[in-house]
Amino acid sequence: MYIIVGLGNPGKKYERTRHNIGFLTIDELSRRTGIIPNKLKFKASVGEGRIGTEKVVLVKPQTFMNLSGESVRELMSFYKVDHDKLIVIYDDIDLEVGKLRIRKKGSSGTHNGMRNIIYLLGYDDFPRFRVGISGENRRGNLADYVLGNFLKEEIPSVADSIERCADAIECLMKDGIELAMTRYNG
């Protein structure tokens, strides 16, 4: 069983913002698989089903970004899956729009949602899928930038990166993380 968590902020106000790339990727996986994260539990919207032969839980934490660890900790405690069966998808301000970076483990970098997850879990050895959100208009207050919408000209690259991220997760389910990293990093 895999727990696939897309980070974002709940509510219409944040729906299409840069910070919600994780939610948008969960939406794409939901569209492909028919798994609808519509049950509220573990401080999250949760849906259970299968991707290929693997049982999965698709998750959109409802705690707001900086407290995402509260939801993830409850999920990991309930499902008792190994660390490598937790996948977290989130935005990365240090990657250009459209770029995808997959890692088996690592630090939180500058991302407060990941920082909270790692702090509350007490470990960082779980796969993460970082989707680039940094564009040419990146200036001023960082919070305003990540909570802002993508520019019209960025939307095709964003849509492509969401699809490739979903493809990479499906690849991981079927062929493992090494192949997913080889095929989709960059």
From TrEMBL:
This is Peptidyl-tRNA hydrolase. It comes from the Bacteria. The record marks N9 as: Discriminates between blocked and unblocked aminoacyl-tRNA. GO terms for biological process: protein quality control for misfolded or incompletely synthesized proteins; rescue of stalled ribosome. TRNA binds at Y14, F64, N66, N112. CDD domains: PTH (cd00462). The active site is at H19 (proton acceptor). Gene3D superfamilies: Peptidyl-tRNA hydrolase (3.40.50.1470). Monomer. Keywords: Cytoplasm, Hydrolase, RNA-binding, tRNA-binding. It catalyses: an N-acyl-L-alpha-aminoacyl-tRNA + H2O = an N-acyl-L-amino acid + a tRNA + H(+). It is an enzyme of class 3 (hydrolase). Catalyzes the release of premature peptidyl moieties from peptidyl-tRNA molecules trapped in stalled 50S ribosomal subunits, and thus maintains levels of free tRNAs and 50S ribosomes. Hydrolyzes ribosome-free peptidyl-tRNAs (with 1 or more amino acids incorporated), which drop off the ribosome during protein synthesis, or as a result of ribosome stalling. One of its GO terms (cellular component) is cytoplasm. It is found in: Cytoplasm. Belongs to the PTH family. Its EC number is 3.1.1.29. The record marks D91 as: Stabilizes the basic form of H active site to accept a proton. GO terms for molecular function: peptidyl-tRNA hydrolase activity; tRNA binding.
